[in-house]
Amino acid sequence: MFDIVNPVLGYMVCTLVLGGIFGWAIWGLGNSKKHQTLTSEAEFWEANLNQARRERDINLTEIETLKEEKASLKKRLKAQDKTEDKT
Question: Using CA atoms, how far apart are residues 65 and 52, in angstroms rounded to an integer?
């Protein structure tokens, strides 16, 4: 009976150890891929944020230009109205 128990226990211990090693290796690979994915997502969102900031700056510049143009046109219109009233 003990002749059968020793090899069975040996196989069970080897199975447990190998399962632990393979499980740890797979878990480690999964974590490294997850870390890589998180890093790439962070880079993606940072790039999008920078692009959105550039577009916002361009839009703000355009808005300021349009405001100045509007003020200029209002002045010209008032000046034109004054000259028409005098005639």
Answer: 20
